[in-house]
Amino acid sequence: MMDSSLKKQLFSLLSLLLILLLSGQRERVQAEAVQPTKKLFVFGDSYADTGNIRKSLSNSWKDPYGITFPGKPAGRFSDGRVLTDYIAKYLGVKTPVPYRVRKLMPKQVKYGMNFAVGGTGVFDTSTPGPNMTTQIQLFQQLIHDGIYTASDLTNSVALVSVAGNDYSHHLATHASPQGLPLFVASVVNQTSMNLMRIKELGVKKIIVGGLQPLGCLPQVTALSSFQQCNASSNTLVALHNNLLNQAVTKLNQSWSSSFAVLDLYNSFMSVLNHPTTHNIQNQLRPCCVGVNRNYSCGSVDQNNVKMYRVCDDPKSAFFWDLVHPTQAGWHAVYNKLRTMNALEAIQF
Fold first, then answer.
1. Residues of the signal sequence (predicted)?
2. Prediction pTM value
3. Per-residue pLDDT for 306 more than 80?
4. Annotated catalytic residue 324
């Protein structure tokens, strides 16, 4: 039998352990209340879209898109993860739910939301989707409806992707490229206004993608059998990025370093110029292509026979299709951005 003094000691020890356990739980709850979940809000185009574009409009909902992640087509313009996924990873949050399916995934709303739609631009393009102004209005409506509170937004980051759809649409609808410099200025000016609007809605940190080297996209390098980038296309990119950096510098003078430019040009070029450093063998040749010019990645004929080819190892290719990186490509760019300290601006 246990004597009474030993019983008292054990009872005291158990009581102390219970008090410590309860206080630990209380401190954890208090810590969670002090540090609410970070939120990521995403605006833009196919470099950031994780499932908003309508299935009827895009091959991104068809095989072989998504073969690496999540293992089936899910609306991402890649074989797997895209820029949004890696920015979410950096912030330590789950990839935000696409606006289109927000009501089907209500528990995911607390991590933020993705409004980006493939093919869209700062202005209207040939893709029938919401331009960036409209995407921001959808965000504003959710705030108005109380889905996100002011305190939610003080712990939030916005990713804004402007990957060049405005320029491809402009070149397709204008006979001469003469007015292009003026159009570049208008795209950057509208982007700046969009960034300011997102900030005015209460988002704490905003990171906007600089333009990637358009002259290195496979749809351009196909003319050289995927051997070299087009210098004149990249001159346009340099103009856009110079104006964007100036605009963001000006915004930061008013908003105390709330904005940053994600240097996609130099991060892309670093990987493309030193592919083996990132285990990339094919830096300009896309992994997935149509069997001829009439078809593209994901195309099928009238008998549902696939009319595309996929490389043996998507992990060794930088580009997935004629425009978009593979998951391996995005991962290499993400790693380069980290070594460039380009993402530190969105830490808080």
1. 1-31
2. 0.90
3. yes
4. yes
Spot the catalytic one: 45, 152, 263, 321: 321
Which entry of 46, 156, 161, 192 is annotated as an active-site residue?
46
Model confidence at 29, in pLDDT bands (50, 70, 90)? very low
Q: How far apart are CA 96 and CA 86, in angstroms?
A: 11
Q: Please tell me the predicted confidence (pLDDT) of residue 348.
A: 75
Query: Does 197 have pLDDT greater than 70?
Result: yes
Q: What pLDDT, on a 0 to 100 scale, did the predictor assign at position 5? A: 61
Q: Which residues on neighbouring strands pair with residue 206, listed in sequence order?
A: 158, 259
CB-CB contact of 125 with 46 (8 Å): no
Q: What is the pLDDT of residues 61-101, one digit of tens each?
A: 999 999 999 999 999 999 999 999 999 999 999 999 999 99
Q: Is the pLDDT of residue 30 over 50?
A: no
One-letter-per-residue 3-state SS of the chain: CCCHHHHHHHHHHHHHHHHHHHHHHHHHHHHHHHCCCCEEEEECCCCCCCCCCCHHHCHHHCCCCCCCCCCCCCCCCCCCCCHHHHHHHHHCCCCCEEHHHCCCCHHHHHHEEECCCCCCCCCCCCCCCCCHHHHHHHHHHHHHCCCCCHHHHCCEEEEECCCCHHHHHHHHHCCCHHHHHHHHHHHHHHHHHHHHHHHHCCCCEEEEECCCCHHHCHHHHHHHCCCCCCHHHHHHHHHHHHHHHHHHHHHHHHHCCCEEEECHHHHHHHHHHCHHHHCCCECCCCCEEECCCCCCCCCECCCCCECEEECCCHHHECECCCCCECHHHHHHHHHHHHHCCCCHHHCC
Selecting among 169, 170, 240, 324, the annotated active-site residue is 324
Q: Is 321 annotated in the active site?
A: yes
Catalytic-residue membership of 46: yes
Q: Which contacts of 298-303 are long-range, i.e. CB under 8 A and separated by 24 or more positions?
A: 298/59, 298/60, 298/62, 298/63, 298/64, 298/65, 299/59, 300/62
